[in-house]
Amino acid sequence: MTPAPAFRRRRLLRGLAAVLLGLLPLAEARAQAPTLNVFNWTDYIDPAVVERFTRETGIQVRYDVFDSLETLEAKLLAGRSGYDIVVPTNEPSFSRLIAAGALQPIDRARVPNWANLDPALMKQLETSDPGNRHGAIYLWGTIGLAYNVGRVRELAPDAPRDSWRLLFDPAVARRLAPCGIVMMDSQIDVIPSVLRFLGLNVNSTAEADLRRVEQTLMGIRPHIRTFASGGAIELLASGQACLAFTYSGDAIQAADRAREAGRGVEIRYVAPKEGAQLWFDVLAIPRDAPNPAAAHRFIDFLLQPDVMAAITNAVHYPNAVPASKPLVEEAIKNDRNVYPSEEDFARFFTVTAVPQAAERARSRLWARFKAGR
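Below the sequence we write its predicted structure tokens.
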């Protein structure tokens, strides 16, 4: 016998109420679940890694990105950033944040996978963080030039492709300007490389040295199409730019995307022969992190060899967990732009933080350069 409509509605409502009551514990659990707040560089992790962390721990992740060290420092030095994990570069940002008391020491007892880190690389990091108290190396690389092989060959066939002159020589930059030159929007990263190109101390605070840097940059300013950091990847890959001052991994990502697009764009990266800056990006915990327990758990999770291999495979930057290398794709681990040789390392340099007065002078120089006056 078919139930009466009213009875049918009552039975449906009782069933719906039961379902809703059953969902309440799940909703409450989600509401009470801890949230990890991450502030990392653009295009700098395998999204599947973040999903796996949540799946294995139940910790939700709010993931924000930045594209310059200036942005990161401004957030942290202002206080109450709301982040649990940040990823500063060793110099000058990481050491400066430590000196300002903006980062808390890491409790290694809560990070057993710390033992997976490369002791030699961590030893280099000690110049920024004595005793490695405040951070673990996440990824590392160099700063150099990425260029479109075909367009550079067409417009400046005699240009030196292994030298900073490809960008910093106004005569070369003028010829390449029609196909688009992209400058990284970060004085922290650019000025030391210009100093190195000029044969000067990369940490110089001398007024005369900064004048020479400014003269060099102003000489190429008319030929720069745009200032960008993370955006350089797409500009290169799509053929909208033919030369970029950029990070090694971004250049390699651009080369991969260009190949995948199949439009005949070939991108190469060079760490210039005069010397390229070597840097380390570091997993760190802000002093006022709202959830430091989740932050420690995230660092420990990332330092697993298979996790770091997945990240390197996704973003093409080397990591500091040697046991991950057998799990890295052959083409990546055999690429000297990703994993440099000992000969390459001999040409690399690191920088140190400069005094505040010198930093302000550099910032004013950079503002004049960007404005073109």
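The chain has 17 helices and ten strands.
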